Hints:
There is one protein chain. By secondary structure, the chain is mainly alpha-helical. The chain contains 6 helices and 2 strands. The chain has a two-stranded antiparallel ribbon. α2 packs across α4 (about 90-100), α2 crosses α5 (about 115-135) and α3 packs across α4. It starts with about 25 loop residues before the first helix and ends in a 5-residue tail after the last helix.
Amino acid sequence: MKTPTGNTTDQAPADPAASDDALATQPIGYWSGLAHEAVTRHLRDAMARIDVTQPQYWVLNRVNGGAGAPVREEVAAQLTPLADGPHEIARVVDQLLHRGWLHADEDGRLRLTGEGEAARVRLRALVTEQRAVVHEGIDDAEYVTALKVLRRMAANVEAARTATDPQAG
């Protein structure tokens, strides 16, 4: 295995009370997981108060976006990697059809109804409000830097994985 170059800071155990001086030694998995859980819980709690789920919001956005109206299988293929299981998105499509927020045409293409578009717009406003809470005290430059670092870490891990397992890529 190739030895990493550059920064060789020792990895310390996760410490929620770590000082700023010790943050470079903290495990990214712990902190990214903590952030993911906290932000996801915050957003899902806000959506639950208006009887909507995050996956329902994903589906409304996916059906609204793109060049053409997707079929159920296209929506599921795109969103299942984000979901809590392989069948969740198909169930969400059924929920939204039942609720009257989606309509399937004769070719099975999904389209938002007027109620569905109104719900998507309301949810967009809610998500924007919740984003402001999450981003309090963080300017756009800091946010972009954080995302670039996370994107680079993901690319580094993927490159290491494909280097050690040629069938992985």
